[in-house]
Amino acid sequence: MEKIFANLKKGIIAPCYLLYGEEEYLINENLNKFLDILVPESDRDFSLFYLDGENTDIDNLIEYILTPSLLGNRKVIVVKNTTIFHSRENLAKLVQKIRGSIDEQPGKAAKYFLTFLKIAGFALEDLQDSGWRKITDDEWSKVVKGDAGEEREKWLPRILEIYSSSGLTGASGADQTDRLEEIFKNGLPGGNCLIFTAEAIDKRGKLYKIISELGVVHYFSTARGEAAQKEILQKEAQKLLDSYGKKLSSTAWIALGKKTGFELRRSLTELEKLVSFVGERGTVEEKDVEAVVGKTREDSIFDLTTALSEKNQLAALAALRALLDQGTHHLIILTMIVREIRLLLQARILVDSAKLPKFSSNMEYGSFQKNILPVLSGFADTMSMPKDFLINKHPFVVFNAFRNCGRFSYPRLINFLDELLELDRSFKSSASSPQLLLEMFLIRACSK
Predict the structure, then answer these.
(1) pTM of the model
(2) 298 falls within a domain
(3) Is 169 contained in some domain?
(4) Is 127 found in the same domain as 64?
């Protein structure tokens, strides 16, 4: 990016730029740097144009590209979150996005669905009024590669209803990009510059290949590993703090990381809140983080396992959403759920063994320590137990497992472990939404 910015400052400007990747914050930050160099603030009313890439047809885009600047100087067209570089190879991911946002962000889900219709070639009128039922699983999987379509009856009718009431139009088949490709080959009007931003693309597409040859393409990769993630965050956080003339104490940095998992976008969003919160003070302290930023991942994990063991459905779903919002990976959440079910199962086996003093869910912790815990300690001394076995846990963890296991039968806990194994396989081998799968499991597990 530094080389690209150096060329821009020298006046070496490509007709088109494509900035893409999953790190949306970095893309927007660098887009702003582009615009600071290309378009003076005083000229932006007549020289800078933004288009919504999720809801802009090709004809409209071409009109913007071919129209020269009113002032006779440089004209910049920014197409944010464009979908024209998508292909059928992206359809399974689009289905995931639709399903993942249908509850919390129905408007966004509708836009994803518009893109889905354009690429898949499905006509809206053919899908409405239960017309989608005529599409066989085999036909669906041929169009949406990587998605068997087994659960589309759960989300497709809902998104059709949401889409119909959204006011979005233009979904009568796949958009043709031939004219756009021809324009790029012939060259944009002098002084016009086009900037695309996108989350996902298909590099095999003809339009992508043309832009990569005639313009500039830059991919913002997601940091792999916690160390790399922290390093990128530190650099971006320092830039943000420097722009406000603020500092972040070392203890505040650690506290922020605990609450956000060092996830780039959320961390920087919270940091901006903290800068506003401290006002005239020059340093953000740990107490500020505690006052402004939400629960830690550890807090939310505890909330989730507690709600699960207590069969509190609403609390479990809220804790799951909090974990996902904090950037916690779904496989980590699955691991914690499996651990909790195992502890409940082990407690159930011990209670049913008739080798312990009588235990009831109403027993106080003091009575448990006095009557039950010594017997369990005797088991641990005389038997070879794995380190992760319930008896080796903290006494209060053991007490809670005993107290809550009565809500679940032995066969049901065994079935839960089988279901969680299938869930793990689905995460790794299908295009199903991890959030939806976890929500469905929690609803079943917490049912009365």
Answers:
(1) 0.51
(2) no
(3) no
(4) no
